[in-house]
């Protein structure tokens, strides 16, 4: 069995059983216990499981995996501050893509009244925030409604996204981790976010505190594709250090101050 096949099997068994006991599994599969342990260590480094003595457990789920109304109650002070900091990054005349999600809605609300720009979004919630904005042209991407994030997805959305090149993509994520990268809880949503990022000159991740140092099942992109991360001032600097070490700009927002 190839390494990739073993790892896929391990992740499926972990999802099915809720735990992996290396000794018992090695006997069941006819593989050495050392091989199983090595695969588990590598999967843990990739942010896909939690390594424990004798085996592995699933990662604690990101709080951002909850539904839209539940997520509105999380990090209530941080999200408006992150939205304001992100809005300050938009320059007149730019074409920007604003993702779906609760923090993205705060970004749309924070865009200055005098700003002249074009906002592309597949989020009806974001589009509605900009209805009364006199100087912003809104391009709304359509498709099948993904109710968890209240965004359009599917072939129609991907086709429209492929026709637009944006200056900045403000990405909302479920999870962000130095090893696992940018991840989310839905396979198709990961593909849509990846397509939007690939069509943007720069990707800026909106990372409210509950999303840092967590991993979800499906990778959107490695951190090498990220130009900047916007976080709240209350985040421990130790959590931010790995991103800075990778050369990613970290914008810290909160209160009356903003720093990179």
TrEMBL record:
<dbReference type="InterPro" id="IPR001034">
    <property type="entry name" value="DeoR_HTH"/>
</dbReference>
<keyword id="KW-0238">DNA-binding</keyword>
<dbReference type="InterPro" id="IPR018356">
    <property type="entry name" value="Tscrpt_reg_HTH_DeoR_CS"/>
</dbReference>
<keyword id="KW-0804">Transcription</keyword>
<dbReference type="InterPro" id="IPR036388">
    <property type="entry name" value="WH-like_DNA-bd_sf"/>
</dbReference>
<dbReference type="GO" id="GO:0003700">
    <property type="term" value="F:DNA-binding transcription factor activity"/>
</dbReference>
<dbReference type="InterPro" id="IPR037171">
    <property type="entry name" value="NagB/RpiA_transferase-like"/>
</dbReference>
<dbReference type="InterPro" id="IPR014036">
    <property type="entry name" value="DeoR-like_C"/>
</dbReference>
<dbReference type="Pfam" id="PF08220">
    <property type="entry name" value="HTH_DeoR"/>
</dbReference>
<keyword id="KW-0805">Transcription regulation</keyword>
<protein>
    <submittedName>
        <fullName>Transcriptional regulator, DeoR family</fullName>
    </submittedName>
</protein>
<keyword id="KW-0678">Repressor</keyword>
<dbReference type="InterPro" id="IPR050313">
    <property type="entry name" value="Carb_Metab_HTH_regulators"/>
</dbReference>
<dbReference type="InterPro" id="IPR036390">
    <property type="entry name" value="WH_DNA-bd_sf"/>
</dbReference>
<feature type="domain" description="HTH deoR-type">
    <location>
        <begin position="3"/>
        <end position="58"/>
    </location>
</feature>
<dbReference type="GO" id="GO:0003677">
    <property type="term" value="F:DNA binding"/>
</dbReference>
<dbReference type="Pfam" id="PF00455">
    <property type="entry name" value="DeoRC"/>
</dbReference>
